Each structure stands twice: as structure tokens, then as C-alpha cells.
Amino acid sequence: MKKLVLLGGGYGNMRVLLRLLPNQLPEDREIILIDRTPFHSLKTEFYALAAGTVPDAEVRVDFPEHERLRTVTAEVVDINMDEKCVYLDNGDSILYDDLVIGLGCDDNYHDVPGAAEYTHSIQTIRKSRDTYREVLGLSGGATVAIVGAGLSGIEIASELRESRPDLNIKLFDRGPRILRDFPERLSNYVQSWFDENNVEVISNSNITKVEPHLLYNHENSIPADAVVWTAGIRPVEIVRNLEVEKAGGGRVVLTPHHNIPEYENVYVVGDCAALPHAPSAYLAEEQGEQIVKVLKMRWNGETLPEKMPEIKLQGIVGSLGKKKGFAFLADRTVTGRIARLLKSGILWMYKWHNG
User: Fold this and answer.
1) Which of 185, 213, 231 is the last residue of a domain?
2) Which one, of 125, 114, 107, 115, lies nearest residue 9 by Cα?
3) Where is the FAD/NAD(P)-binding domain (predicted)?
4) How far is it, in rounded angstroms, from Cα 276 to Cα 113?
5) Where would I find the H helices in 197-262?
6) Section 88-113 average pLDDT
7) What is the rounded average pLDDT of the residues 276-291?
8) Can you give the pLDDT at residue 24?
């Protein structure tokens, strides 16, 4: 029995699973899924888990079940692509015929002293739980600093405002205006929500150092009882250590068929892959779709097209608490209640399609 091994149960590999199972997997093949948790985590909702507005069960989806799918709960510690072998922290090793690396990302601390040691994260479900416990334990009037005003920073700042109205919340934005890469109308709407809800947005910031209960914006020291870091991501360490060609941010350079150039049977999906667009759940899913098509063509001995279809992103959808939101779709800006309902609907549809 030939083995397709999937490293990581994120959005990209979930799409691979759901396209091959239950009846598209050749009879001579089995799938081995390796993940640190025994379930698929809805990473786009970790901000709500960290803010305490949804229970843990709301950000989990069970992996599918199939007689030729084996799930392994473990951490990957090494990948030897020459030996076609994956090594795990429990001492086991697993051989593969085809491998899809979808191990996700870590926070990118940009070499800021103290950032790794003294800030909290929402990159994994475990770290999001830890962040929730930290925030839950703060007394009224405490200050929470959120470094990074991208989608994650905006969503956790707004969700935390609704969860803990007694806290002082400071959101540090490196740009001159929030969501600077999107239409000004969208930026103004989000900024207005923060103004109305007493979230302080500090523009043109540059966090240069973090100490216990203190961070430095340029040369100014700012007291903070807790700091949440949402200022960028990079591939996990095991991928950063792979001796293959990398692009900006340490992401792996791939062929048009999503495999590593020197290894036709090794694919990379999601946050670890060097693609023309910024990493996102939607991008990982669309990439997973194409990987399945390539796998099936190679298994059938078919000639691959010179290029795969261009992946076209749909835009962004974000929340501002449980009642308001914002979206930029097909060059159109949507704000308010409709945008929030749209985000909730997307989440509901995702859960429905994933069982």
C-alpha cells in the first residue's frame, strides 16, 4: 500500500482529505495525517478563543474517518526527503511515497528583543488558550497592548473590547492608517469603530523592545499588563531548516505544480509556501484543490499542464466584535452588520462542508 502523508491538519490538508475521501483515493493508497492535535483547528477564529467570547469546542472540527485514513497525534521533528521519511517526537518514523507539508507558521518577532519571551500569541490553539487565561486573570483597568494591526490584530482588539470592557486596549499599527492597503473608506470605518469603543490605535509605531509589563514604541516606554503579538508570521522552524530554495520570509519556493523543484513527490501548502499572495485560509484551500488534481494526474500517469490555473483571491472579511464587521470583496467595500453576518455565514458553511 502506497502512502500519502499529510503533515499538519490545517486548511490546505483538510481540503486534500475532503477531495480524496471517501471515494477518490485509489485502492492501492492510504493516507496518514500527522498533527499535534487530534482535530482540525479553525485558526481564523483563534482571536475569539483568546478573547473568551467562544468556547474551545467552537474552534474545532473532527478529522474525517475512513478505513484507509490513519491519524497520528504527534509533533514532526525532522523531514528527510532523500530517505522519504518523517520523524516524530514520540520516536516513531513514517515512510511516504507522497508528502504534503502543511505545518503552518510561527509568530515573526522581527528580531525584536524580548518579543518572544514576554508576549502572548494566537498562532495555535494551545497558545490561544494560554492568552485567554492571561487576559482573564487581569484586573479591571489593566492595559492590554496588541502589536500588529492586520486582520488578526483588529479582530482580537475588537473582540477583547466586547469581552472585557473594563480593560484599556492599545493597538499598535506600523502604518499611517489602519488597513492601509485597502480603500480609505474601509480604514475609516474600522478606525471609527475603535474610536467609538475606546480602543486606542497608535499609528506609525515601531516596537523596538519588550520587557516584562513594558514595551518600547520607538524610544518611548509604554506600560502594559499583557502584550499580544500579531505582527507577522513565518514558516515553522522545521520548514525554515529545510535545505531547499526559500523566498522572502523563509517560505519554500515551489514549481507551478506546488512541489519542491528537486522533489516531485513533496508538496508544500499554506503558510509555508511561497505564493504570489499573502497567506490565508482561503489561499491554502485553493492550493489544496490544485495539489489533489496534480496528485491524481501523477498517480494515473497523465501529463501535467505546464501551469496550473491562477488562484484568484476573493478579498477579506473581518469582524468587529459580534455585531459589526468589514469586508472587501470584488473591489467592493461592505461594512456593518451585513459584513458580520457574511463572516458568520462563511464560518457556518465551512463547518457544514467539513462535517
Assistant:
1) 231
2) 125
3) 3-287
4) 30
5) 237-240
6) 97
7) 94
8) 95
Cα distances from 211 to residues 3, 116, 186, 218, in angstroms, run 47, 10, 34, 14
Query: What is the C-alpha radius of gyration for the chain, rounded to an integer number of angstroms?
Result: 21
**Digit-coded pLDDT (tens) for 101-143:** 999 999 999 999 999 999 999 999 999 999 999 999 999 999 9
Q: Among residues of the chain, what percentage have pLDDT more than 90?
A: 96
Instruction: Determine the average pLDDT of the residues in 69-80.
Output: 98
Cβ-based burial of 55 (10 A; exposed 0-12, middle 13-18, buried ≥19):
exposed
Choose one of 200, 231, 262: the last residue of a domain: 231
**Which domain covers residue 295, as residue numbers?**
2-36+74-106+233-299
Contacts (Cβ under 8 Å, ≥6 apart) of 65: none
Q: How many separate domains does the chain show?
A: 2
d(CA 140, CA 120): 19
Domain assignment present for 322: no
Q: Give the chain's mean pLDDT.
A: 96
**Calpha distance 34→199 (Å, rounded):** 40
Mean pLDDT value of segment 258-268:
98
- Look at residue 45 and tell me if it is in a domain: no
Q: How far apart are CA 24 and CA 295, in angstroms?
A: 11
Residue type for position 325: G
Give the residue from 226, 31, 39, 207 showing the smallest Cα distance to 110. 207
In this structure, are 136 and 273 located in the same domain? no
The reply to whether 115 and 162 lie within a common domain is yes
Are residues 129 and 186 both part of a single domain? Answer: yes
* Cell numbers describing residue 161: 473590547
Q: Are residues 245 and 224 in the same domain?
A: no
**Could you tell me if 291 and 258 are in contact, meaning their C-beta atoms sit under 8 angstroms apart?**
yes
Q: Where are the alpha helices (DSSP H) in the chain?
A: 11-20, 46-51, 115-118, 125-136, 151-163, 184-196, 237-240, 281-299, 337-353
> Measured in whole angstroms, how far is the alpha carbon of residue 239 from the centre of its chain?
15
DSSP secondary structure letter of residue 23: T
